[in-house]
Amino acid sequence: AAYGGHTETLDSLITNGATSQLQDHYGRTPLWLAAAGGKTATVEALIKKHSVDHQIADNLGRKPSWIAVKKGHGAVSKVLQAHDGESNTEPIVPPNGNHHQSRLECDVCTSKIPTTVFHYHCNLCAGGNWDICEDCRKCGATCVDPAHLLLKRTMLNGVWSEITTNHDS
């Protein structure tokens, strides 16, 4: 609901007892997910109406303002920075490049991953459709089960090129 910007649904859930500080497997709160989705109205409602703590970072230490900047959501970033009282310019939005290039989505930070860029893939989680970007992997992200083998892969000439790795690589 948060990632999709369904503010009324979130309002109803929170009003009826769901916690606004609930965190998923990666420590992402509804505010973090709304920021990742670029949903300015939802971010504002969670902070102003429900007093959500905008300083709560995910399990990898990344705040909602970080993901907003990483994904290029300028309006969300401004709202969060106004509440943070700080400027978060560390993440750099990757160049858009070829608009026709196939893209995957990182299952941790929800950023787009061009298929021609190395990323990590789990053949078991989410029915074999689990991908992690380099940024999240460098921060220590794994798939849902840390015992699973990750494949570092990229697409070369239309074919997946894979390097087997474990979660420590």
From TrEMBL:
Gene3D superfamilies, A to Z: Ankyrin repeat-containing domain
Record key words, sorted: ANK repeat, Repeat
Record carries keyword Repeat: yes
Keyword rRNA-binding: no
Pfam families: Ank_2
Signal sequence extent: none
Alphabetized PANTHER family for the sequence: ANK_REP_REGION DOMAIN-CONTAINING PROTEIN, ANKYRIN REPEAT DOMAIN-CONTAINING PROTEIN 66
Listed name of the protein: Uncharacterized protein
Organism of derivation: Paraphaeosphaeria sporulosa
Lineage of producing organism: Eukaryota, Fungi, Dikarya, Ascomycota, Pezizomycotina
